[in-house]
Design a protein that fits this description.
heterodimer; A: alpha/beta; Rossmann fold; eight-stranded mixed sheet; disordered N terminus; B: hypothetical protein PF0899 fold; three-stranded mixed sheet; three-stranded antiparallel sheet; 2 helices; elongated
Chain lengths: 273, 109
């Protein structure tokens, strides 16, 4: 239990501001944030059913109702700040962090980017992002295999992104679980690398069917691996006919301009920097 | 293993709605295209429900089949898996059923 506010953190999730002086206290209590610190308990007492009258109680409630409600709040909070949020998902090792490092360096002149890093453990990725000079908050999920809307809500309050900026949420490396959880993002971007094999969209359809953009990374390795780009693109389009696909190499820089153009297009007129 | 988080959401929602009444049965609706594995939910349920009003309750899971409507030919068809592919060959399909993830009802003592 947190000694500052008394909140319980039984799930083991921690949100850490990489710019905070010490990492000992895993979540912030900035001045004047008391109203934010309400934990968003859903209060629906008015909808409670009188259990003494009914034996069978129809609930007809979405299982993810609470997550979806918190995600919508995040979306509204981001909209009010004219801030674009990208939910960046992939399997571990596909190059999300390397892609972000290069993106931050290459677009620094016209895009203001900050990052929420999601991993089960360590600050390794957040430290890499911080080294680029970018604002970053690390969410460690403990045993958790995905980020949810409440974790992102807490991280956004800590991150406090400027108006008209881009927040990239680097989800926990996993092609399964993150697909089901709306975080309040503006768009979903799935990264896949050519070393993973072209059959991955077929094996993980739930991840690819919600993607707005698929970044095929490590294309500089195509001469050395057996990867059918056409079959991959067909599999993606069979799941999501309007998904954009960009072939990129985050290490060599190939094709990155198309990704930046897509990002700028998403920003639209919200760009202020 | 997102089923653990899903099952926790179910238990939290039911506990919040019921003022301490013991639940005898809980009925969930998990569509076959939802991306949630019913057996995993059953596995997690006993663990997550321990110490709550749901402890010892029977978990019933209804699994509605998937269905799609083709935007190209207008055909409506059942979907066995998560791939929205119409028999006509078009992938431009609206999934009309099978993604449900709902708490349908509880029966209390």
């Amino acid at each position: 239990m947190c000694a500052t506010c008394g909140c319980s953190d039984e799930s083991g999730v921690t949100v850490t501001d990489l710019d905070a002086p010490a990492r000992a206290h895993p979540h912030d209590h900035p001045p004047g944030s008391e109203r934010d610190h309400d934990h968003d308990h859903v209060r629906e007492h008015d909808r409670k059913t009188d259990i003494h009258q009914d034996r069978l109680i129809q609930l007809e409630q979405q299982v993810l109702a609470k997550n979806d409600m918190l995600a919508e709040r995040n979306r509204g909070w981001l909209d009010a700040r004219e801030t674009l949020a990208i939910n960046l998902m992939s399997s571990p090792g596909s190059g999300k962090t390397t892609l972000l490092e290069r993106t931050i360096r290459d677009t620094g002149d016209d895009l203001s980017i900050s990052v929420i890093e999601g991993d089960q453990a360590t600050f390794l990725d957040a430290d890499r992002i911080k080294a680029t000079g970018c604002r970053v908050v690390q969410v460690n999920t403990g045993a958790g295999c995905h980020l949810d809307a409440d974790m992102v809500r807490r991280a956004l309050r800590t991150l406090d992104p400027p108006i008209g900026s881009v927040v990239v949420v680097e989800n926990v490396g996993n092609l399964v679980c993150p697909a089901l959880f709306d975080l309040g993002e503006t768009a979903r971007v799935v990264v896949m690398s050519v070393t993973e094999g072209a059959d991955k969209p077929l094996k993980y359809p739930h991840m690819f069917r919600t993607a707005d953009l698929v970044l095929l990374n490590k294309v500089d390795l195509l001469p050395y691996v057996d990867f059918d780009v056409t079959a991959f693109a067909t599999a993606v389009r069979n799941l999501k006919p309007d998904a954009a696909i960009c072939e990129v190499s985050a290490t060599k820089g190939d094709g990155m301009d198309a990704w930046y153009d897509w990002l700028r297009g998403q920003m639209g007129d919200n760009r202020v920097k | 293993m997102h089923e653990l988080a899903i099952t926790q959401s179910v238990v939290d929602a039911v506990v919040e709605k019921l003022d301490g009444a013991d639940v005898r049965t809980l009925t969930l609706e998990i569509g076959r295209l939802s991306g949630v594995v019913p057996d995993s939910v059953r596995f997690c349920f006993e663990l997550v429900s321990a110490g709550t009003v749901l402890e010892g309750a029977t978990l019933t899971i209804v699994e509605p089949p998937g269905a799609g409507a083709c935007r190209s030919c207008g055909d409506e068809f059942t979907m066995e898996d998560a791939f929205p592919l119409c028999p006509c060959g078009s992938a431009d399909v609206e999934v009309t059923a099978g993604r449900q993830l709902k708490i349908r009802s509880v029966e209390v003592h």
